[in-house]
Design goal:
Radius of gyration: 36 Å
Strand order of the largest sheet: 3-2-1-4-7
CATH superfamily of the largest domain: Ribonuclease H-like superfamily/Ribonuclease H
Largest sheet: 5 strands, mixed
CATH topology of the largest domain: Nucleotidyltransferase, domain 5
Structural class: alpha+beta
CATH architecture of the largest domain: 2-Layer Sandwich
Strand content: 15-25%
CATH class of the largest domain: Alpha Beta
Shape: elongated
């Protein structure tokens, strides 16, 4: 659509005797458009909007009531996406085409007064930002691999730390956050999050956030407070580009990696050294490492080395004395049945303590066999607390079944091979399990299954041969 000043030029060139074809070629328009402008009244104003309304030039005008209603909806819900505003207009019977709506959007939004932007810049040691991200990295032969990462940045110095994480759950969040405090040299006053689900589990009746209990305890232990960045409010992170976007563009998407593990981690450490110790920050004009020295003087020292910090989770000891946590069952003393407890989660182990510290058990984080973890002697200790011969028998059966497909398979064959005498076999097999431990016991059951030897005496004989050899 030609502006009024250009329409004036067309009219002047035509009045000078140029043909419609010559004028059309000069402006890059059609001859038909030139002939239409020849028939229009002389241009008297350069105000495109008012002239087009008067002369009825261009698209038909959108009714004022459509603009007013669109504006009212946008003012009433500033965070609503465009598609939602369009849907509401159509539900109300406002006739507006999709292309017209998207053409009006920037015009109407630009007419709505905005709040004065205030950037949340921090002083040394005050703010840090934490975000999760995911990206597809490039590998040789055109392959890609999706990875998750955690990004941490100190607001004042722009010092950055990035860690690869298996997922975006609470444990990954807390461990990567604490793991960022260590190389940064301390703990800031506040950490700002972009409302990840691992931070907030809901809101109370007053609309206040309900924090993840494990994160809240870590904040208390290390002495920082948690803040949420309002949705779509990047200014609350300071005058610096989006943290996750910066890491993606500057590192992950700018490189190719030999693999998704060793080479990726080596290149990541080299990149962190470059952005923290060599390159000047665009936001501050200084190398982050230089400003970090001032931050370290203001930040709190780590109260607990991250590797020694057990994340705390409230748990309940079940009626058969296990604690179920993240798909693993950890055995507790028989006297702890039904008692509330606290599970301290470490990278390599769990420590479970009941209220008052009366009962305690420390297990490997992941059992060597199956999904149930027993400490040495725990099965026998629990068996001693079971009253009645039938209950004791089925307790022993259950411990063999817990060993997984091999235990279940052998017990099934045994019961069908000896339907009336399997009870004695179960007692002998349980005693052997306690004596040799789970890995050896499972290996013996597997050999007996392969040889179709269904009876405790065969398994005991295999164990004796193994010891003799």
């Amino acid at each position: 659509m030609l502006r009024m000043i250009d329409r004036h030029a067309v009219q002047e060139m035509l009045s000078e005797g140029l043909s419609a074809g010559e004028v059309a070629r000069h402006f890059g328009i059609s001859s038909r458009t030139v002939r239409r402008i020849r028939r229009e009244a002389r241009v008297e104003t350069a105000d495109d909007a008012s002239a087009r309304r008067t002369r009825r030039v261009g698209r038909p005008r959108v009714p004022d009531r459509t603009r007013d209603r669109m504006r009212a909806l946008m003012e009433g819900d500033p965070e609503a996406p465009r598609q939602e505003i369009l849907r509401r207009l159509r539900e109300e019977g406002v006739e507006v085409g999709q292309s017209t709506f998207y053409r009006l959007w920037p015009e109407v939004r630009g007419s709505i007064p905005r709040e004065l932007m205030v950037r949340f810049e921090g002083v040394a040691g005050e703010f840090a930002q934490f975000d999760f991200g995911q990206v597809d990295i490039r590998l040789p032969e055109g392959r890609t691999k999706r990875i998750h990462f955690a990004a941490y940045r100190l607001n004042y110095s722009r010092w950055v730390w990035v860690a690869l994480v298996p997922d975006e759950r609470a444990e990954s969040l807390i461990r990567s956050l604490l793991g960022s405090f260590e190389p940064a040299g301390g703990v800031p006053l506040r950490v700002v999050f972009d409302r990840p689900k691992a931070v907030v589990v809901g809101t109370d009746e007053h609309g206040r956030p309900i924090w993840n209990a494990t994160l809240a305890q870590a904040a208390i232990d290390y002495g920082f407070t948690v803040e949420l960045c309002a949705p779509r409010s990047p200014e609350q992170k300071g005058s610096v580009e989006n943290l996750v976007g910066f890491v993606k563009r500057s590192f992950f998407q700018a490189r190719m990696f030999a693999d998704g593990e060793g080479d990726l981690e080596r290149q990541l450490l080299a990149w962190l050294a470059m952005v923290n110790e060599e390159r000047r920050s665009r936001a501050t004009g200084e190398v982050p490492r230089v400003r970090l020295e001032e931050e370290v003087r203001r930040m709190k020292p780590l109260a607990i080395p991250p590797a020694d910090n057990g994340l705390r989770y409230p748990v309940q000891v079940g009626p058969t004395a296990p604690v179920d946590f993240q798909g693993v069952r950890y055995a507790m003393p028989a006297g702890a049945c039904g008692i509330p407890a606290t599970l301290h989660l470490y990278p390599d182990r769990v420590r479970i303590v009941t209220g008052g510290g009366r009962f305690e058990a420390v297990h490997p984080r992941f059992p060597g066999v199956g999904r149930t973890s027993y400490l040495k002697g725990q099965r026998a200790e629990q068996l001693a607390a079971v009253a009645g011969p039938r209950k004791r028998l089925y307790f022993m059966r259950e411990r063999i079944l817990e060993l997984g497909p091999v235990g279940e398979g052998y017990l099934t064959e045994l019961i069908h091979a000896r339907p009336h005498t399997w009870k004695g076999d179960v007692e002998r097999l349980f005693a052997l399990l306690e004596e040799v431990g789970e890995p050896t016991f499972l290996r013996l059951l597997q050999r007996a299954l392969f040889k179709r030897l269904y009876g405790a005496e065969y398994v005991v004989r295999l164990a004796a041969r193994e010891v003799a050899s």
